[in-house]
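pls ignore typos typing on phone
calcium ion + seq
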Amino acid sequence: MKTRIMKFTALMFGLIFVFSLFPQSAAAVVWSDDFDDGNYDGWTVELGDFLVTDGELKSESGVTVRIISHASSQTVGTWSIDHWHPAHSGIHAQNIIFLASGDVTPSPAYSGYGIRISECTIFLIRYDEGTSVSLAFTIFEDFYETWTHYDITRNTTGGFHVYANATSTTAEPDLVVVDTTYDISDKFLLREGNNFATYPVSRIDNITVDDEILITPPEPTTTETTTTSETTTTTTVGDVFPIDTTLLLAGAGVVGVIIIVAVVFTRRR
Ligand SMILES: [Ca+2]
Ligand SMILES: [Ca+2]
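k done
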């Protein structure tokens, strides 16, 4: 009997070991919409009119500003979206505000972050109670009448990466920004506007919000330089996010408390 129990226990430990070798299920989609069911249920029209045709979300031309929102509290992870840019030369901007809180109407007073796609340029924008501040931008050749896939990632220390048409999970970001002003979100906004409301509108599809960072830059390249004084300097080139000093301080504080407790404990004995 004892032998059977031991064999069974060994088998269970063996199975647990084998299962632990498989990678754990990775990232989780928090919410997504591909509009393939022909509607935008779950979204709230804030300004203007919207419609779903051919499994894509569009705003109705005719008013200068069109805004639609979706509940979203994610502040770290990956936001992905397909965007089709209409062809015209007017002043036109599509804002994909992926992290936002605050009122949208009657006057825009929301704060957070988004990308703005305007003519040939992508901006990473910070919104301060409705006012927009450009944090970085990249000029592209031409967005007109083409679909562009955007991935935006944000880490826990406020590091943003924006990728246009990334084809793998390792890619050079098109925009790199660190900003820690806002760390709260209750909505995702699509805001389209132009000065001439009769122009054709953008199309949006395949929105996915994921709680993990799905795309990372390539590994930084490390070069070693030997100087005459026989010391070796290591230079790291690449995108390095700043270390969160508050975390370091918190860690140091915890270590300090443990040492104090240990000393007090040892003295009492
Ligand atoms: Ca739907
Ligand atoms: Ca679709």
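The pocket of calcium ion (ligand 2) is lined by residues 34-36, 55-56, 205 (CB under 6 Å). The two ends are 46 Å apart (CA to CA). more later
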